[in-house]
Structures are given as C-alpha cells and as structure tokens.
Amino acid sequence: YGQLREEALGTQPAAKSIHIYPNPTNDLSEYVSIYIAPLKTQKVKLILRNIIGNEIAAEYEAVDEHELKMRVKDLAPGFYLVTIKDTTSNFRGTYKFLKR
C-alpha cells in the first residue's frame, strides 16, 4: 500500500495500519484516500512532495475519524511522497503513491 519509510524514536505500530488508495491512481481519480487508523485525523498533518523532494500544496480533508482524502486531480503524472505527522504520538511516516 505504498509504505516507503518510517522515522521514529522506537516502534511505530501505527505504520502497519496506514493505507493510500487507489494506488496507483489515474487521471479520472479526483482524490486518493488515506486511511490512518489508529491515528486521529484531527491530530495529523500531511506534507506532499514530488519524487525529487519539492513540497507541493496539498488539499486534504477529513472523511471520518481515521480517514482523509487528498485532492490529486491537478497533479502531473508521476510518483509522490506523503509524509504523515501526528503531534500526539510523535509518529512520522512517509508513503509513496503513483499518479498515472
């Protein structure tokens, strides 16, 4: 499901429960969903970068307590990295998805 790496001070059980779908996505997809249980959507921040590391403005919103949707309709085809930061648990993980 696009897991790339985890940066942590210790174990990160949350990392096993984070999924980005659909992955890969295509030109017809307006959004990708990011399921982040057991993290809470109110406590996380998303940072979107292209594959060479340039930060891109990300439009995202909470769907429910454990799911976000991020707009990808206007992104060019290619690989993207989404960093998820949780201020409560100090979780930080970076995940990859492909837009075709």
Blueprint of the fold:
Elements: E1 3-6, E2 19-21, E3 31-35, E4 44-50, E5 55-56, E6 60-64, E7 67-71, E8 78-86, E9 91-99
N-C termini distance: 16 Å
Major sheet characteristics: 5 strands, antiparallel
Number of strands: 9
**Stretches where pLDDT falls below 50 for ≥5 residues?**
1-11
Helix fraction bin: under 10%
Overall geometry = globular
Widest sheet: strand ordering: 1-9-8-4-5
Range of strand content = over 45%
Structural class: mainly beta
How would you spell out the order of helices and strands? EEEEEEEEE
Radius of gyration: 13 Å
- Average pLDDT, all residues: 87
The number of helical runs is 0
What does this protein look like?
With 100 residues, the chain is an all-beta fold. 0% of the residues lie in helices and 49% in strands. It contains no helices and nine strands. The strands form two sheets. Strands 1-9-8-4-5 form a five-stranded antiparallel beta sheet, with no helix packed on it. Strands 2-3-7-6 form a four-stranded antiparallel beta sheet, with no helix packed on it. A hairpin with a 4-residue loop joins strand 8 and strand 9. The two termini are 16 Å apart. Mean pLDDT is 87; it is low at 1-11.
Please tag this protein with its features.
four-stranded antiparallel β-sheet; mainly beta; disordered N terminus; five-stranded antiparallel β-sheet
Briefly say what this structure is.
Helices cover 0% and strands 49% of the residues.
